Amino acid sequence: MQIPEKYLKQVEKPARYVGGEWGQTIKDKTKVDIRFAFCFPDTYEIGMSNLGIRILYDVLNDRADTWCERVYAPWTDMEKIMREQNIPLFALESGDPVKDFDFIGFTLQYELCYTNMLNMLHLAGVPIRTSDRTGTMPIVVCGGPCMYNAEPMADFIDLCIIGEGEEVMDELMTLYAAHKKAGFDRSAFLHDCAKIEGIYVPSLYDVAYHEDGTIASFTPRYDDIPVKIRKRIVKDMDKARFPDKLIMPYIDTVHDRIMLEVYRGCIRGCRFCQAGMIYRPIREKSPDVLCRQGKILADCTGYDEISLISLSISDYSHVDELTDKLLAWTNDRNISLSLPSLRADSFTKELMDKVSSIRTGGLTFAPEAGTQRLRDVINKNIEESDLMNACSVAFAGGKNQVKLYFMQGLPTETDEDLDGIHELCSRVIDCYYRTPGRPKRPPQVTISAACFIPKPFTPFQWEAQCDMDELARKQAYLEGRITDRKIKYHYHDAGVSRVEAVFARGNRKLCRAVEEAVSRGMTFDSWEEHFDYEKWMAVFRDLGIDPAFYANRVYGEDEILPWDNIDIGVTKEFLLRERHRAYEGKTTKNCRETCNGCGADKLGGERTCCPSLKK
Amino acid sequence: MLSEPEKIRVLFQKTGPLKFISHLDLDRTMKAAFLRARLPIKYTEGFNPHPKLVFSLPLSVGTASLCEFMDFRITEDIPKEEIRDRLNAAFPPDLRAIDVYTPETKFCEIGFASYDIVLHAPEADENTVSAIRAAFDAPMNVEKTGKGGTRTLDIAPLCRLLSCEKTEDGIALSLRLSSSETEFVNPRLPLDFLAAHIDALPDDGDYTVCRTAVYRADGVTEFR
């Protein structure tokens, strides 16, 4: 505990800053060679819910020579005190200043946390730019889904981990230990890192631009580092590192339960979805392994809920076997199962009974679009009848509320598709009244509508986002259609989505914008009360950056994209093929039905559904 | 298996970083610890079963304690020492079970609690000590916010200054405060009063508070 008590008394939720939880790792700092500060650029409650950090915390602390500690972004009240009192950013376990660590790691899960990362470096007293960090100053290493296009942060990151970090992290620490022993030379170390598969060192690559602002070339500075950086995966998930000791937060966190990761990848190919592409190929864990791991976690945490984590749980090929095996012991111990990410076409009474055996949460489905035409364009592969079946099962089972996720501004969307959202919801209400055995209460359908954001490594990566006026018009249009009080309509802020789109498809020219935004005091952009669209536009304007170039432009199919330097397995040809099929309104079968030749199979994998990998 | 679940009381300490967690979070932490300890304790009945725990005097966030009490029922016969050891193995380091026993009292029999308080006050001197002593001998009118709104209350009759000494950079005092169900005095009340009336004392919360003992209504017998 490094913050004097009197300050802890002045802030909201002081438990965010004191550590000391059950399950944290404490080591003797005189007996380790590597100090690793694992930072999450958002609050404690959000960061503690991240599964990736929990895995990597375990991987790093498993090494006798390394001590990994946690760091979260202090909330604004604490940040103010830290700045006034000159308290540098510190790690929770030891209370030691982060600037004295060997590594500062960040996981970047969403673009709107970029400002927080720089702000944390600033609070730590570490130079923000890679070029200003010298000698034995901490190495800043980043991972997470945003690293599939790290370019808008390229000037600040020494090392990017592309893909799954479990194995890379270990290799990286071993390399660092060797360099430290031999007399540390920063540039030699970074050069050697770039030779590890799955590590991208932005400073070792030069980007040249055409006059129109698009990329002309991407060139490595050395011959012995790859031109294209291939992502790393854990091939055999049964053997993947599994944390058997978790930190139990004292305060309520976003996901306060056991997260049992069932498989990685997704057999679906929704054309807007980045996760569905970047985590390919699909790799499952065996039901027995999962059951054993679930038991270990229940014993060591004391959680009373197990959540089965995956991109779409009902696509797990042993979902019945797994849930049966888990329920065989969880019921007796009053532990409930939760299955997030349920697809409407696989929601059955049997599944619902299992999930609700002790407790139930709300039900959410994601039709994503209001008409079959548009659902085919995005390759959602959900029919209206699937949704109605799922809803009637839920209603007959005693539910009167259902939440539906949609996206607005999808490519080819017209007002008819927006009408379709409203009509679909009305038919869900009708379905409720038709369902025998439904509850007596009136139904409630909640629409949660996000704005479409074109993301790298998706078939829609070339698409333009609707401009702000059009997004606002679409939102107002749909809002005007909904007169039934049984339908609630929530939608995401268009300004937030636009800034997210800018950075999602950004290049290195945006680094200055992040830096400038932080210098203007802009942080916690993912928090509605902190995000200020006008301030962002002012930053772009003052730096001569046109946000529309990134968010609202159709990228050329033959253009070098900022993220073309990364190889995720899935090929650009496949994405392009999928884009064209979208415009033809053609759907693509899921990976279990047929192989569509996406290219991810070249990465290898066990218990996958790629025909080429089956033995 | 016991025919009737047996009532058990734990005397525990809550110190270090743990003093910054709220009563609600302590409750969650305890429930998880009980599940880790795999103790066969009685669950609440109903739709959402969870371990049934009852606490004595909730602590304010920021206050440490050496004497907290918690009751639960156990459905199997397990030696008390074993319960204590299993709980300690499952508790985070700053939560310690000191004693486990069969309770013979009810929490409503608690009358007083004493606190050790260290005030950071570099400018304090012997005059400050005298001023503090004098303050407790006169009316101490404070604003107290309760269910019926805010009212002015003289807390002097509910407070007793047990000791007050000058330390190297401040003042150490020990207080015994009324802690009955009807008249509970939070240590903040006299501390805020002192800070407002004595210049040398900190008014920015620069002090530490630790509950050291809990007494029955006679103010002498330690509650158990």
CATH topology of the largest domain in chain B: Alpha-Beta Plaits
Distance between the termini of chain B: 27 Å
Q: Unreliable stretches of chain A, pLDDT < 50, 5 or more residues?
A: none
Mean pLDDT reading of chain A: 94
Question: Helical amount among residues of chain B, as a percent range?
Answer: 10-25%
Figure out the total of helices of chain A.
20
- Major β-sheet profile of chain A: 6 strands, mixed
Specify Rg of chain B, calculated over alpha carbons.
Answer: 20 Å
Query: What structural class do you assign from the helix and strand content of chain B?
Result: alpha+beta
Would you list the SSEs of chain B in sequence order as H and E?
Answer: EHEEHEEHEEEEHE
Distance between the termini of chain A: 53 Å
Beta-strand percentage of chain A?
5-15%
Structural class determined from secondary elements of chain A: alpha/beta
CATH superfamily of the largest domain in chain B: Ribosomal protein S6/Translation elongation factor EF1B
Q: What is the domain tally of chain A?
A: 2
